[in-house]
Amino acid sequence: MLQLILAVSVFIVAVAVYAGIGLRWCWRARRRRGILGRVAALELDPYHVAAKKYRETEAAAAELLLGGYLDIDGEGAAHLTGAGRDIGRPPARPLPAALLEAVRRHDPEPVSVGWIDRSDVEYRERCIAYRRERDALLPVIGRIPRTPVGERRLSACCGCVGVVLLVSFWILAAELLVLGRPEGLREWACAAAAAAGLTALWFVGRANRAVGARTACEDPLGDRIRAETHPALTALDERQRSYVLTSAADDGRWTGVDVSTHEDGDAYECWSDDDWADAYHYRAADHEDDEPGPAPPG
User: Fold this and answer.
1) Residue 247 near residue 78 (C-beta atoms within 8 A)
2) What is the mean pLDDT of residues 268-282?
3) Do 59 and 49 meet the contact criterion of CB atoms below 8 Å apart?
4) How far is CA 36 from CA 52, 215, 227, in A?
5) Which residues contact 110 (CB under 8 A, 6 or more apart)?
6) For the segment 84-143, what is each residue's pLDDT rounded down to a tens digit?
């Protein structure tokens, strides 16, 4: 009789616990499908996707290379082509146009796109403005909502009470099952059923964690962005892609003509310390040549 009571009790508790886990699974899975569906329906601009990964300069350089505006050699130096110097033929997209203008500012010296990305203030400002503009157009995708702090504390307290009750029930049922002495086939069958139910209850925590992991939806938009590659980078062959990545990684070898801008918008060429030192020596030499020699003896 004891084994029958244990089997029925364990079965009811196991069904109740796993039914709650199943309902949680269904709710989270339905919510996750809805969020992923909204993310998949978004029409994301390829350059916005690249900008979210901070690879917009690589994508713009790849498009300029494919369009014949730039040549990039194996050392990462970018040079303007005839089409790149043609002001009347700008690229259609804003970021490639901004990068092309930045390369023109440093022409005729070679410059790496990585140096432009890190050091050209005007180009960086245009990239940031583009990213903010595109971010403002994104809808609120959402994620599986979290319970407010107060409700979460109450839920945690109820969960702790439930765990204590479940563990107490498990220990009591296991002790009664071990101490009981089944007699006859029916009692042995009931004891086996109770043991199976207790085994299932032992893995409740693992099952609950698995539900949370498999229905997680923390950053669906980020997951899609990380999975996509800009079409221009995909269209490059291996050699071209290697040259673009080399140029993007360089931030100091190829710096082009160092050009800054006055407050009135006029560009001027900046001199380095070495340039100023050379100019000083040249001026000093000219001054020495202009000095009158000693007067001839009278």
Assistant:
1) yes
2) 42
3) no
4) 18, 11, 14
5) 73, 77, 78, 79, 254, 256
6) 888 888 888 999 999 999 999 887 888 888 899 888 899 999 999 999 998 888 876 655
Q: Structure tokens of 137?
A: 């157009």
Structure tokens at 103: 């390369």
User: How buried is residue 59: exposed, middle or buried, by Cβ count under 10 Å (0-12/13-18/19+)?
Assistant: buried
* Gap between the Cα atoms of 94 and 89, Å rounded: 13
In one letter, which amino acid is 44? L
Q: What is the pLDDT of residues 162-176, one digit of tens each?
A: 788 888 888 888 888
Angle 115-117-119 (CA atoms, 0-180°, nearest 5)?
60
Other CB atoms within 10 Å distance of the CB of residue 98: 23
Which pair of structure tokens corresponds to residue 62? 């790849």
Which region, left, alpha or beta, applies to residue 205 given φ > 0 means left and ψ of -120 to 50 means alpha?
alpha
Q: How far apart are CA 130 and CA 132, in angstroms?
A: 5
- Cα-Cα-Cα-Cα torsion 80, 86, 88, 92, nearest 10 degrees, comes to -30
Whole-angstrom Cα Rg for the chain? 36
Mean pLDDT of 62-83: 89
pLDDT of residue 129: 93
Q: pLDDT tens digits, residue range 181-238?
A: 777 888 888 888 888 988 998 998 899 899 988 888 878 888 888 888 999 999 999 9
List of residues 6+ apart from 132 with CB closer than 8 A: none
What token pair was written down for 52? 């979210």
